[in-house]
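tool_call: predict_structure(chain=1)
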Amino acid sequence: MSYWIKEAITALQEGTSITAANSSISVEDISALPSDYALHDLEKYMHARRRVRGTMTTRVLASFAAYCVLHGEAGAAVFIAPEDMAATAVLNLGNPEQPGHADNLAKLTLKKTAAYQALTQHANGTGYKQAVIAEFLEDWTEYVKCFNDAGPVNTPQAIAAIRKLTIESIRKLESSAQQLGTSMSAFESVQASSADLLPTTIYFNCQPYADLQSHEFVLRLGVLTSGDKPTVNLRIVKDDLHQEEMAAELAALIEGHFSADNFDVLLGSYSKGQ
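tool_result:
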């Protein structure tokens, strides 16, 4: 058989194979293209984009809701992440019958108020120099109420008592208590004998986030004497409960903003598959 006849038979067989392959594959699903071709998106040369896509970010709930209502498409959904005090709206999510590209988003992350930021910075259980805690209470006096076992304590007096704490006075009070046969901790000794009224509990009332209601945070005050100078620590009582309450309040606020619109509001997060 001559060379040309063999080539003709081979070409015919290849043509038959391609025809058979094409008969089992939908033209809409796959195309045969040369390997050195590249795809170029010409959208940037058009007068307008084909569709809206992008990410809007804000810390204001009202702005978040207004943008979502303005740009939301059929099947849009809002996903709330309570632990992060945040929410993400997927505005072109679509539905199972007509899925969207899920690349047009709005993101809300609430920002702590200045007062709550200062509270979480200082009332985290860490021991600070007494001047640091005293200055924190002085800066936010209008939010503060001080108490000890006997009842309310004047805030300026309580701050002065924190400033005057010394290791020497604590040790002297401990020694005096032992001589009297009384078993008390250093903090209890100071509290019982100090000329100034040292607070044991501090109430801090503030709005934690701009869109939330005010919360009353109860702080426990402790004195540490392990170093050369005393350190003071503040701890928020039942802080986890406050976090849960604030998260529930955020979820209710978001649901209220979208109650009259065709948005699904869900707890959780969304990640687009490939």
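agent: The CA atoms of residues 105 and 202 lie 42 Å apart. Proceeding to next step.
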